Amino acid sequence: MNIENLGHFQLGQDVNGERPGVTICQLTDIHHWPKGKQDFHTRGRVIEFGVEGYSAEENVHLIENVLEAGKPDLVIFTGDIIDGRPFSEMGANEDSFIENMTELISPLVSSGIPWTFLPGNHDDDNSPWNREDLLKLFALPGCLTKDAKTFNFTF
């Protein structure tokens, strides 16, 4: 397996000529559902988003709170960020994940915090898109790994 080398990126701020450290935030298993979808069927059961505590709006608020509390220099989304299963059920198009992720990263973009993404099993599980389609996320604003051609990279 070949690993892409995307070069190096400077993170953190110099404070009086010193670099006090870098804070990296890992966000995982957010399962950001499509707006307007209230439930979906899987493995013989119905998952009701409100009852189970899932909310697209709350996901964005959660990220805002994490950014405020942690003040990270970089955010890494690591798997099951966008859950493709409800998108298929509602007949969404193959690029609907881009709008969904754009909503999710809006607090990072407005704060100027760079981010990157590594998919999990549900990001393209039974979705209208495939794993390669998810590479389009690297073109979204603020993505630090915009030049990646695969999910096998180092920077």
Describe this structure in words.
This protein has four helices and seven strands. It starts with a strand and ends with a strand. The protein has 155 residues and is an alpha/beta fold. The chain is globular, with a radius of gyration of 17 Å.
Layout of helices and strands, plus pairs?
Elements: E1 4-5, E2 24-27, E3 39-42, E4 45-48, H1 49-52, H2 56-70, E5 74-78, H3 84-89, H4 96-111, E6 115-118, E7 153-154
Parallel strand pairs: 1-7, 2-5, 5-6
Antiparallel strand pairs: 3-4
Helix pairs in contact: 2-4
What is the H/E order? EEEEHHEHHEE
E-strand count: 7
Which runs of at least 5 residues are low in confidence (pLDDT < 50)?
none
- SS element count, helices: 4
Major sheet attributes: 3 strands, parallel
Helix content bin: 25-40%
Note the beta-strand portion.
15-25%
Structural class: alpha/beta
- N→C terminal distance: 17 Å
What's the Cα radius of gyration?
Answer: 17 Å
